[in-house]
Amino acid sequence: MSLAKISSLAGLGVFVSGNDIDTDRIIPARFMKCVTFDGLGEFLFHDVRKNADGTDKPHPLNEPRFNGATVLLSGANFGCGSSREHAPQAIQKYGFKAVVAEGFAEIFYGNCVTLGIPCFEAAREDIAQIAAAIEKNPAVELTLDVAKQEIRFAGQTVKAAVRPSARDALVNGRWDAIGELLEGLPAVKTTAAKLPYLAA
Amino acid sequence: MPKSLFQKVWDAHAVRSLANGQTQLLIGTHLIHEVTSPQAFGMMRDLGLKVLMPHRTFATVDHIVPTDQFAEPYRDPLAQAMMDELRKNCAQFGITFFDRATGKQGIVHIVGPEQGITQPGTTIACGDSHTSTHGAFGAIAFGIGTTQIRDVLATQTMALGKLKVRRITVNGALRPGVYAKDVILHIIRALGVNGGTGFAYEYGGEVFDRMTMEERMTVCNMSIEGGARAGYVNPDETTFAYLKGRPYSPKGAAWDAAVAGWRSTASDPGCHYDDVVTINAADIAPTVTWGINPGQAITINETVPDAAKATTVDEKSSIEEALAYMKLTPGAPIKGTKINVAFLGSCTNGRTSDFQEVAKYLKGRHVAPGVKAIAVPGSQIVALQCAQLGLDRIFRDAGFEWREAGCSMCLAMNPDKLIGDQLCASSSNRNFKGRQGSTTGRTLLMSPVMVAAAAVTGAVADAREVFDVNH
Ligand code: SF4
Question: What ipTM describes this predicted complex?
């Protein structure tokens, strides 16, 4: 099988304001004691979303009108802090397919790409414009174009950069080593057939 | 051209070169356990992938199992969830699972050899750093991460850069009271915890020629603590004798063919090594760690290092950091250091021969007052063998708690944990800060017989004196 070629995607957005949102904020360390990454989505931004007694704090992800969002928008230096793969995993498992921010921490960016999550870097004013459009109408559809490096929404188009290596990887369906390993499967079978303990 | 075992196994398993220069390496045997595999199965589902060779994938449960409770559900719901998840994944993907009900469950690095799954000339991967253990059989065995587990599940391969090979020869004979554990602690002390970076270690020489498979496993197990990605011993008659008749060993005519093949994978005389180290067996003494990594070790008659006598700034700060954590007195003899807990077990020293050797000396003695002593067989089969030999009785009579099979207090993902800053004499492999379940808990690594000596005297002791081993 080959990996999805992610050249463009469309969906609803939600804006989580703030700069320097770190991976601890994205997924607090105690939730890393988990059976699968699958359940992580539930705990995304947990400590800024929930009070100690389990009730909701005011947070965009707690607002029903943003329930269907698949594009996460935020501020500068998103994903800083520890390198835990659990952070992008939590974002993905929650249901997000892409992140738009003014900038990203290096390791977080790489982890996202490996999971097939495109990260778009856009200007503060442009993100603010998208956020304003969503605020006015949460049903406004965003089209994120990896190949063209732009975001289209409500009849407008803004620039949104995707780093060249990531763009290449996403557009060509090579964002994860598994792709190349899978391509080698015929050769794997040939090699295995020559080994007595595997041929049997 | 003569080749090393590593080179032969690598060449036979190299599928092709990848764009980034790494090799797509075929992994013949994939071992999995409950802690690192569930996320990988999650990734498999997300990508809609199938396990390529389910019959070459074997699972066991070891890290989270309580050793004082056999029946499920476990008291810790998270442990139960991990158990359930592994069961579900194995059933769904058609993988053999040595569940507790099979009577074959145990620490993954003990189960593989015990079942005859671990064989010479093969490649093995497992999402666990101590996978190097399997190198004792002349296999090239790698510990891997969660994403690589997925890669191996889906493609039976992983992307890897080639390693260099360092030959470590130990000549002569070990003195009485000196064990395989001392050999590897001595090697790590000599070469450093990062000394093996980029290398596979090939262990050889008279000492290894004479070692049992269990002893070779103890040494290979801790290769990773010396920074080596893998460690191995060339297969020989000892290896073949161990494997003969095991459940997954070849049978009949296939056995003879397999042995011939295995024999030919051993390193050729005159082959190239990237580095060679020679050690004299007579220089190795019972060794104990005093610090917070396995390289911070001294012989039983040495004193705890003093930062004031350090020759470099780095050495000074590492001694200071270690002693601040360990609360040991610089310059004081390690012998006589009071202990609170004695732990016998783990994939390093949790095999039948380890308990047998300890029982020899423990018979008729008792654990010192105030010391909590636990003995944890590495597998259900080890537990059964020990019971058949009457060893469990000897341990219980001596005041040890005799437990069910698992990793237990090696890393305390189950309920067996140190409390506060308890000091533990441990037969395991890691003495990192907090390793045994308390953020201030302290670990001294040593051989099982040295653990027993500490248990019965209540303090770090020279087992040769305590048990009157002639030296
Ligand atoms: S016994 Fe310890 S080192 Fe070995 S697999 Fe279990 S936790 Fe890891």
Answer: 0.93
